[in-house]
Design goal:
Distance between the termini: 14 Å
Strand content: 25-35%
Largest sheet: 9 strands, mixed
Low-confidence stretches: none
Structural class: alpha+beta
Number of strands: 18
């Protein structure tokens, strides 16, 4: 990559990429759609990042493909991010590289191919979708450390007492499939540890001192809201398991609410020019021509992110030319 951007366009990057060859056009299209839906499901269920599934325009689709399906996400600064794609390549590449198979009639035939992938730009998407001024906010389903436990003590005797009480809690959490770190490092003060794990986005922090043990309680802090509360030590592992799911759901809900608040509908080009300056997804009619698409891009720096698969399919007239439009498409400025 010549023009780099941290986390999004790096000089070198890792792909999750797949290629399939099929006997029929229908099988290839089915797999192409299946994969974009799988990426959308991963984005929503693990990254807590809502996306819009759609088809790229002829001008934006992968070169040589019959169709490119995309998932488009909305970042907190109002810019769109293409988070994954799936391409139905038809037989174009098979013909170019002479990829054939023997069909049921025992005759050679070109395969119907597709390819699909996501890359490490998803890390950038995760950061820009959820994080705040205090650092990362990681969804529990993806966080490498889901819970951190920090002891509050004045001397080695108190630390030993706390460690003995914490050990079975750590075991219980791990038995529930929860990743947990007990940070009893003596070269860092609790305040430093609090800030450090906040920056790193650990979903749940437990702080426990000698008085907490006496009271049978523990201080719980959730990273998504920065709220603190006291919970009983008895049954804390099961409580944390439920809390992590609540945090996951809350992070997703917050992202959905923000994304939806950034979707607006316009009918005229003058209105579009005003609204695009506010960021977000703009739903507008387009006449289907590359000329109009390029005109909008040149004059507003906005591109058609996709023709959404779901939503309003009502035909109308192009906001620029007044010509017939099959349905509204999604415009945005993007990374």
């Amino acid at each position: 990559e010549m023009r780099t951007r941290m986390f999004l366009r790096t000089a070198e990057f890792l792909w999750q990429e797949g290629h399939c060859a099929h006997a029929t056009a229908e099988e290839s299209e089915t797999r192409t759609v299946q994969m974009i839906n799988l990426y959308a499901q991963f984005a929503r269920d693990y990254m807590a990042m809502p996306v819009i599934i759609g088809v790229k325009t002829a001008n934006e689709r992968f070169a040589g493909a019959l169709n490119t399906y995309t998932i488009e996400a909305m970042m907190q600064d109002g810019k769109a991010l293409q988070a994954g794609t799936s391409h139905n390549l038809g037989q174009n590449f098979a013909k170019a590289f002479d990829v054939t198979f023997v069909n049921k009639e025992n005759k050679p035939e070109y395969v119907w191919a597709n390819s699909w992938g996501v890359s490490t730009r998803l890390m950038g998407a995760l950061i820009m979708t959820h994080s705040d001024d205090n650092g990362l906010v990681l969804p529990p389903h993806l966080a490498p450390i889901q819970v951190v436990i920090i002891p509050i003590y004045k001397n080695s005797e108190q630390l030993a007492e706390i460690s003995a009480r914490v050990a079975p809690i750590v075991s219980e959490l791990r038995a529930l499939g929860i990743s947990v770190k007990y940070d009893d490092a003596e070269n860092k003060r609790p305040g430093f540890k609090f800030a450090d794990y906040e920056v790193k986005g650990v979903p749940v922090r437990l702080a426990i001192g000698a008085r907490d043990i006496e009271n049978g309680t523990v201080e719980v802090m959730r990273r998504d809201t920065l709220e603190k509360h006291v919970a009983p030590l008895d049954g804390i592992a099961e409580y944390i398991k439920g809390l992590l799911e609540d945090i996951q759901a809350n992070i997703l809900q917050k992202a959905v609410q923000y994304r939806d608040s950034m979707i607006r509908t316009v009918d005229t080009y003058d209105e579009f020019k005003v609204e695009i300056e506010k960021g977000g997804f703009i739903l507008a009619h387009w006449d289907g021509t590359t000329e109009t698409e390029e005109k909008v891009k040149e004059e507003t720096k906005a591109t058609i992110r996709c023709i959404p698969l779901d939503g309003d399919k009502t035909p109308g007239v192009c906001m620029v030319t007044g010509k017939p439009s099959a349905q509204r498409v999604i415009f945005a400025r993007n990374y």
